[in-house]
Design goal:
By secondary structure, the chain is α+β, with helices and mostly antiparallel strands. 16% of the residues lie in helices and 37% in strands.
């Protein structure tokens, strides 16, 4: 595929306007790029087969029109006489040459031959009246290099065209008809043949054109996502977990404000729970704050029923925009990527790169300047533990000091051992147990924490920590906050249930049960302390329980007196 590269100066003698012109033509005019510019305008026409795009960089607009022609100043009736489309200079030059072969012209002998681009020119002129009254009379002047000038390559004819003038007169030539209706002059300063670097003509990045057909994005809906969103312009990295079915989304990012939520925060991680109606913020080591979930962040949508988690793609970009499909491109791995663009409500441009039905990246432009380039990098969803995330949320329900009341009881798990607990994972076990407790009383499962303790070779004691009902109102997500039980009421309901028989529940489809009539206060009634454990104690106890599981797994044996306060024992591990 050959490329013709032409450039020069275009002068309109009627309007006294001058402009630079550059043109690249592929495949004998099937595709072309034409640029016309001066100090007050910057125009580009891109022709790709039957499609033509007009880009006005002066006012940052683009229009799509299959019949659009480049306005060189040559009227349609002149182009009709030349039998030319007028879509590029190459076609006009060819039409003028064909015109000269069928029209009698004259050489003008001059004392000082004109010089164009360092070459002496031969002056040829022809005048032709129209064959019909409505046809214009034409004045055509051509300067060409002559036979003595050798062309730069064999592909260029020996007579190189140096300049072209076309004058258009209404009616026929007469002594009184000396004022042209239009008169243009094109002086060529470059003519070259080359191989194009690209095999496809592309619009500038981020350019959206009016008149294009809107299309439906081929993206599939995303129920769960775990991965990284990297912005190569802002040099930020954001890790996101999203689960529509579980009503939860978590974000940790090096960017501030958080880009996924569009929320200002100094936290290391933010979690939004649409199941419970709270926002949880965390530092690198512990829970910072639990507060009401509001509708002020980018992941929340509101209707008459309350707050809802937005679909994943709608958090990333406005899916209701009118997208048009543009020329596909290639990734660094040579994978074909479809390109879609739309104008957003703030007049910025959204550019999507899609591989089949998955979003690859999102770019945003403001006034043709790239402001954001977000690469979507999915990670294996099984690499994220939702149970572990919810296990961490429980720490936000724990009181910060020992003076805050926490009810703690102990129940028995028959036929189970620490190995059974750690085979499914403490987080998974805790979530399953807490969900089972939610069937007994009105209580948020996040208020329940458990820690297994060895009782005998045939049973396991389970310390159950019940945090008090929070005074923080949840967001409007349908959570039953007003009727939720306080801790003492829940424990009473649990005791009554166990008085009737065993409580069965499932952990990863495995059957577990709590023995009837085994609920006791912890510490037991004859001890002086009836307070539960502080949040710090429970955190240390969690580490202790984890260490205990490792010790047993390694073959170590450790016996715990169930009558001893576990908060004291937990701290003794670190003494």
């Amino acid at each position: 595929m050959s490329l013709i590269w032409v450039s020069g100066v275009l002068t309109d003698w009627i309007t006294s306007k001058i402009a630079l012109i550059e043109e690249e033509v592929w495949d004998l005019g099937a595709s072309s790029i034409v640029k016309i510019s001066n100090k007050s305008l910057d125009l580009t026409w891109i022709k790709d087969g039957e499609d033509t795009y007009f880009i006005n960089k002066t006012d940052n607009t683009c229009a799509y029109n299959k019949t659009l022609q480049v306005p060189y100043g040559i009227s349609d009736r002149v182009l009709k006489i030349f039998n030319s489309t007028g879509q590029n200079l190459a076609s006009i030059v060819k039409s003028v040459i064909d015109f000269s072969n069928s029209t009698t012209g004259y050489y003008i002998i001059e004392k000082q031959p004109p010089v164009v681009a360092g070459m002496e020119g031969i002056h040829w002129l022809a005048c032709k009246n129209g064959s019909k009254p409505e046809d214009p009379a034409l004045l055509v002047e051509v300067l060409f290099s002559g036979d003595q000038i050798e062309p730069p390559t064999l592909n260029i004819s020996k007579q190189i065209m140096l300049s072209l003038r076309i004058g258009e007169f209404n009616g026929s030539f007469t002594e009184n008809n000396t004022s042209p209706y239009s008169y243009i002059h094109i002086e060529f300063d470059k003519l070259a043949l080359a191989k194009p670097k690209e095999t496809q003509i592309k619009l500038p990045p981020g350019q959206v054109c009016s008149g294009l057909k809107n299309t439906t994005l081929p993206l599939k809906q995303v129920d769960e996502f775990y991965g990284v969103i990297e912005d190569e312009v802002k040099l930020t990295s954001t890790k996101v977990f999203y689960s529509s079915s579980n009503g939860i989304v978590a974000e940790s990012s090096s960017a501030k404000p958080y880009p996924f939520f569009n929320e200002a925060s100094d936290a290391a991680q933010i979690v939004h729970s649409f199941k419970y109606g709270y926002e949880f913020t965390f530092s690198q080591t512990n829970c910072q704050e639990m507060k009401t979930l509001l509708n002020t962040t980018n992941d929340v949508v509101t209707d008459d029923k309350g707050l809802h988690l937005k679909p994943f793609l709608q958090i990333l970009f406005n899916t209701n925009l009118n997208f048009s499909k543009f020329t596909p491109t290639k990734t660094e791995g040579n994978i074909t990527v479809d390109v879609y663009r739309a104008t957003d409500l703030d007049n910025s441009t959204v550019e999507l790169f899609i591989i089949k039905d998955e979003l690859y990246s999102i770019r945003r432009y403001v006034n043709n300047e790239l402001k954001s380039d977000q690469r979507i990098i999915p990670l294996p969803i099984n690499g994220f533990s939702l149970s572990q995330l919810e296990f961490g949320l429980r720490s936000c329900y724990q009181p910060p000091t020992i003076s805050s009341h926490v009810d703690t009881v102990m129940v028995e798990l028959p036929g189970k051992s620490l190995a059974d607990v750690f085979s499914v994972g403490l987080e998974t076990f805790t979530n399953a147990f807490a969900q089972a407790m939610n069937q007994i009383g009105q209580i948020s499962p996040l208020r329940i924490s458990v820690f297994p303790v060895i009782k005998s070779s045939e049973a396991l004691d389970l310390v159950v920590n019940v945090a008090e009902k929070t005074q923080i109102q949840p967001g409007s997500v349908g959570a039953n906050f007003t009727t939720e039980d306080v801790s003492s009421a829940f424990i009473e309901a649990l005791n009554k249930t166990l008085a009737k028989g065993d409580i069965e529940f499932k952990v990863n489809q495995q059957s577990w049960k709590i023995s009837s009539n085994t609920l006791t206060r912890f510490p037991e009634a004859h001890t002086k302390c009836w307070y539960g454990f502080s949040g710090g104690s429970m955190f240390v106890l969690g580490i202790f329980a984890f260490m205990l599981g490792i010790a047993l797994g390694a073959g170590g044996i450790l016996f715990i007196n169930r009558r001893k306060q576990i908060s004291t024992l937990a701290y003794q591990v670190f003494e």
